[in-house]
Amino acid sequence: MWTLALRGGERVAVVAAQWSDAFGVVTRGRVQLELRDGEPGPVLGRDAGFWLRGTGVRALRNPDRRTAKVRIVTPRTPSYRLTEARHEQRG
Fold first, then answer.
1. Cβ contact 60:29 at 8 Å
2. Radius of gyration, alpha carbons of the chain
3. Distance CA 14, CA 17 (A)
4. Which of 3, 31, 75, 89 is deepest in the core (most CB within 10 A)?
5. pTM, 2 dp
């Protein structure tokens, strides 16, 4: 788990390979999702949670002046490794 801090007006690109299993929760301020086609998406406020996998979001942007924070939660072990480990235990 880690925290992403976005200064006022800052934009952070979402790279699918890095964020594939990430779940975000806005803990301070507001965050706007930028859609794949560059159009502005919804603005999420404090305590809003969101998945990035399969959503078409290409960036996160802080539409305000104050710093926004997003807590990012990712699984400790990617799901494909868990599947491999289970298969090895059976064999």
1. no
2. 15
3. 9
4. 31
5. 0.76
User: Chain centroid to CA 44: how far?
Assistant: 12
Residue type, 73: V
pLDDT of residue 89: 42
Burial classification of residue 13, based on how many CB atoms lie within 10 Å of its CB (0-12 exposed, 13-18 middle, 19 or more buried): exposed
Question: What is the per-residue pLDDT for 14?
Answer: 87
Which residue did the predictor score with more confidence, 65 or 37? Answer: 65
Least confident range of 15-29, 51-65, 72-86: 72-86
Residue 76 is predicted with a pLDDT of 60
Find out whether 65 and 19 touch, Cβ atoms under 8 Å.
no
Q: Which domains does the chain have, with CATH numbers?
A: 2-90 (2.60.120.10)
The burial class, CB within 10 Å (0-12 / 13-18 / 19+), for 20 is middle
C-alpha–C-alpha distance, residues 82 and 74, integer Å: 14
